[in-house]
Amino acid sequence: MEEKKQEEVSEQEIIDQPNEDETTENSQAEVVEEDSELDQLREEKEEIHNRLLRLQADYDNFRRRTQKEKEADRKYKAQSLVEELIPVLDNFERALQVEVDGESAQNFASGMKMVYDQFQAALDKEGVEEIPAQGEVFDPHLHQAVMQVEDDNYESNVVVEQLQKGYRLNDRVIRPAMVKVNQ
């Protein structure tokens, strides 16, 4: 009886143990499965890496754009103030062109000239400059033609007379110069 049990156990062990073909198939299946998992992980890694690179590029672009905006804000921070002050400057210049009689009026006019010079220096410091006009070639970006004349002393398309001064802040035109242009 014991022998029979031993035979049964032996047969059972043989049945339970996989044969070599099954072991090879199982290990091959595991290898294929591991390879597919590895490929999938590599694809995920590559996708995440690409997303990270795009995110980094977006951040760099954002940083550059905000830096340019800050520079533009600093460069043109005085634009609205300059736009308000240009008519004041025009009136100042007209007032200084008036002829005055008497010593007290002369002193007043010289004091006003000093204030005008100080005002002009403050605008220059902020980057405000007058746009050259008379004798220059007409540029529609800098000049506003309000009249055309025929003058033999000037070439065609040249500014003959400046009617109102034009100004720019750094490289931005605040007000174009009003001019007469030769035909």
From TrEMBL:
Alphabetized InterPro entries for the sequence: GrpE, GrpE_CC, GrpE_head
Major localization listed first in the record, in broad terms: cytoplasm
Superkingdom to which the source organism belongs: Bacteria
UniProt GO cellular component terms: cytoplasm
A GO term, aspect molecular function: protein homodimerization activity
Entry annotated with the keyword Chaperone: yes
Keywords: Chaperone, Cytoplasm, Stress response
Compartments where found: Cytoplasm
Region (Disordered): 1-44
Gene Ontology biological-process annotations: protein folding
Matching Pfam families: GrpE
Start-end of Acidic residues biased regions: 9-24
Subunit structure: Homodimer.
NCBIfam families cross-referenced by the UniProt entry: PRK14140.1
Family: Belongs to the GrpE family.
Described function: Participates actively in the response to hyperosmotic and heat shock by preventing the aggregation of stress-denatured proteins, in association with DnaK and GrpE. It is the nucleotide exchange factor for DnaK and may function as a thermosensor. Unfolded proteins bind initially to DnaJ; upon interaction with the DnaJ-bound protein, DnaK hydrolyzes its bound ATP, resulting in the formation of a stable complex. GrpE releases ADP from DnaK; ATP binding to DnaK triggers the release of the substrate protein, thus completing the reaction cycle.
Annotated protein name in UniProt: Protein GrpE
